[in-house]
Please model this.
Amino acid sequence: MSRQQGRSGKGKSSGRGQNKPTNKQSGRGGDNAKGKKFTRGNAPVKKRTPSTAKPSNPDEIRLNKYIANSGICSRRDADMHISVGSVTVNGKVVTEMGYKVKLEDDVRFDGARINPEKKEYVLLNKPKGFATTTSESKGRTVMDLVANASNARIKPIGRLGRNSTGLLLFTNDDTVVKKFTNSKSGVSRLFEIELDKNLKYDDFKKIQDGFKTEGKLVAVEEISYIEGESKNKIGLKIKNTGNTILHTIFDYFKYDIIRVDCVQIAHLTKKDLPRGHWKHLTQQEVNTLQML
Model:
């Protein structure tokens, strides 16, 4: 390249590394005619105002979802039933949309109590030393034995004394519970009972025929001596779900109960169910239970 050619390009720059003077800036911290402009990186921080919304309670559920979970209808249909006053919560009609309830609340649809949990049926072969209660203040209870059986709020039907053994049925199905507790029909339970002395045949007949104590008739379905055992071991079938009825019967005839073992509830037996173990009922067992 000649010297003249080099001089002729001196007035122009290639642009590489050259800052061009301009009245406009990129905007990062710069001003323009309209005022300050900020990029996303250095925009002024907006102060957040504390939320006034109440934190959700994990123990509560929307009423329409509660109804839908029970299997009655969809959430949309549940809203319609709520709006027309078909739903009560703890005895009061609720028509408010978005109303929240707890699982332990008494929710009724057209007068019938509903439950949002899946129906569970657990059979326990109870050992000695466990109280039949849901109270945590009673020491070891049957609820400790079935703690891992279900997440549903199952409860025992009927009672067995702390030192009694045998079958106990747990469920959250109110319809099945009513079958057991119905004073007119009830569900049969078979007990093997050991007395402090042989049961006299005259007393055996009186129990079999029914007798009155304190003005009330006490009746059993069946009573028998256990084959191959001494006369102080008795089989007794009765529909009453309480534990005290057994003591009522034998106290009346001056016998002390040494041992009580519930060996059968309706069609349910202890077969393949060791003491202290539990099992979920099969669908066939559930179907039979519901048809009682």
Q: What stands out?
A: Residues 212 and 218 are 6 Å apart (CA to CA). The two ends are 113 Å apart (CA to CA). The domain at 189-265 is CATH 3.30.2350.10 (Pseudouridine synthase). The chain has a mean pLDDT of 84.
